[in-house]
Amino acid sequence: MTEGAGLHAGDLPDDLTAAEAGMWQAFRNGSVYDLSSGDAVVDDPHGGHPWGPERSVRARMVCWLLLDGPPALAGRVSSLKLAGVRVTGTLDLAGGTVTPYVELRGCRFDDQVLLPEARFTTLRLVDCAVPRLEAARVHTEGDLHLPRCRVPLGIRLTDAHIGTDLLLNQAIVHQDRSGRSIAADGMTVGQDLQAELLESHGELSLRSAKVGVSLSLRGARLANPYARLALNAPQLTVERTLYLTPAGVGSPLLSGTTPARGTRIQRFECQGGVRLDDGRFGDAIDLDRARFDLTDDQVLSLRRVQTPELRFLGDAPQRGQVLLSGARVVNLVDRAGSWPGPGRLHMGGFAYENLVPRGPFPLVRRLDWVTAATAEYNPEPYERLAAVLRAAGEDEDAREVLLAKQRRRRETLPPAAKTWGYVQDLAVAYGYRPGRAAVWMAVLWAAGTLLFAHADHPPVNPGGHPSWSPALFTLDLLLPVVDLGQAGQWELHGGWQWLAAAMVMVGWVLATTVAAGATRLLRRG
């Protein structure tokens, strides 16, 4: 009788150990095969207590069951459900098709698990010790669960296709030889990718990955301080929300719910750079209370991302840079204390439609925010902020922003233009405070009227001239376009002639400045 024939007839292979024979029968019965001792210390798959032959099975026998196992008992569905089992040797299912349901809990693998290009219905490894998981291009119709697993040599899920959910909650993963903890470039997840309270030591790479619902890194800790990036996810697509937010530690509550009172909260923390460039997020990017520990050379990069809402509500990075160049969002939800200081924020081409501040965020702080993003003068961030404020009905604040833009621009001008800028600012605040021109005009008119009342003023034409009026004479000098028939009718000499010339010059300055400001206001109206 051949080995295959005996298998399909339901017979036990001759060389099975006692532990393997029990696993074989449990597979046919679809029941859990539990070799745990009942002692939590002994049964800890991540601990140092040795597991002997009495709870060990060979990886070759596990592969035999999964790829070409015996038929189920009558009325049963065959499945591999192991608990507290040690798997010796390399579990190699590369390229295979695994039909039975697979769930291993609290198991220990001596060697790496090889699943490249394998196909599963659902695969669950829960709280298992796995030296390395190699699963490039793996395909599951249902879930792939790896919660609480510890993987010291990394996980590879490049170009994997997960039919429903990928769970990495509370997993602890260290880097492989290339420095990556989880390499999942090009991966597709049909529904949620949950990696809450994940500990990643190395680069978590999700380049060009696609997630059908949400990606949750609530309470995760990503550490790659001596390399460039701890989270490398350019061109990431998430149909709903990316969560880099707190999680309740030890809470049995489902993902996304409010932690119960008294639950310890763990923030999302990242030691190392984050790259989310060119990402697409259907609902939001949520950075509520996130902490980013960057070096001077590392960045939190959101360049060219597109999302309806960016919740920039984390702690301000003390070092490194925040890049928002080319990003497009509808609602920018932020706090005044979440943004880095001058020279460490870049917002060239950053487009947002609404500002939704959490907590006090006065206009002076908002102007500091724009100034921090423009080490060199750039009008665009000022104009964007002014347009958003004007659309929200804050016209006065919008004018203050545009005035700040002109003052910032003035510092880049040559001396002569800078002097003219100071004159415009003093006179009418670059036209954004036109009422100031009326005040200046009234003061000069009153002063001129008092002074010219004492001036010697012989008429130019003794035979026909109007009556002398110091008030009309002064007003005629100050209004450069309107002719009141006074200025050309009288002769002034000495200092009075110089005073009249000064009045004409001041009138032209006021008129030019008001006209320039009115042109700016009309152009932006």
Automatic annotation (TrEMBL):
The name this protein goes by in its record: Membrane-associated oxidoreductase
Keywords: Membrane, Transmembrane, Transmembrane helix
Domain of life: Bacteria
Residue stretches spanning the membrane: 498-522
